Protein: ABC transporter ATP-binding protein
Amino acid sequence: MLEISNISKTFFPNTVNERKALVDLSLNLNEGDFVTVIGSNGAGKSTLLNAVSGRYTVDSGNIEVDGQRVNRLKEYQRAKYIGRVFQDPMAGTAPNLTIEQNLSLALRRGKPRGLGLALTSKQRERFREELKALELGLENRLPAKVGLLSGGQRQALSLLMAGFTHPRILLLDEHTAALDPQRAELVSNLTERIVSQGGLTTLMVTHNMEQALHLGNRLIMMHEGRIVFQASEEEKRQLTVPLLLAEFAKIKGAMLDDRALLA
Ligand SMILES: Nc1ncnc2c1ncn2[C@@H]1O[C@H](COP(=O)(O)OP(=O)(O)OP(=O)(O)O)[C@@H](O)[C@H]1O
Structure:
């Protein structure tokens, strides 16, 4: 469904600042696969997501979605089939619009412009139901400005909006990292629900190994622009945090402080 073949991306090539962010990386996702992506700082995890979303074009290699080559498509052209949630809770929603208007925009994504934000009562009812399922009391606050919500509430809303139109691919980039543990768990559980309900094909970057093991059916570990370890559905079930730390240590050639990795 998503076929990434031999992609490379170098920032500032042939300068002293050269950074090889992706090196001949290949990865295939089948429909409904939920792959968690871990790796040290600067491993290329965000760049991989940016290559898929079209934020960055790759220097070489191929990215195909449903058999169509998308390398040359701009980010806004790919937005039709990609949902994305970032680490920053402020990134996914418009603070000056109400909850209802934000949801309405998400619903209209990829549709012709000029329809305004007016809602039918059926749509409003759908919003209420979906918000109620978040169990954050937002179903009674449809006219409230999103800027008034907490980070966790905004992130939950961003996730709901990203999943709204059943994107072909959902990209989650450390989307729980900026939240306190309780909110992070809430958004993590919500992620599980939205992905499984929609059968969404998902790539999720996280630094939290417990989360990487708990969520998703496959796992990859990146280092210096390459996938250095991957676990299939079957293999992932057998994985534990100590086993993952041992893999990290093997790759880095030294034992690492697990607290740093679990931060
Ligand atoms: N826009 C950019 N311009 C220049 N270099 C970049 C850019 N984006 C990423 N890089 C470089 O590419 C490499 C990979 O960065 P990337 O952000 O993909 O890593 P990451 O695995 O997501 O790291 P982290 O866990 O710290 O967020 C790094 O060396 C980084 O400095």
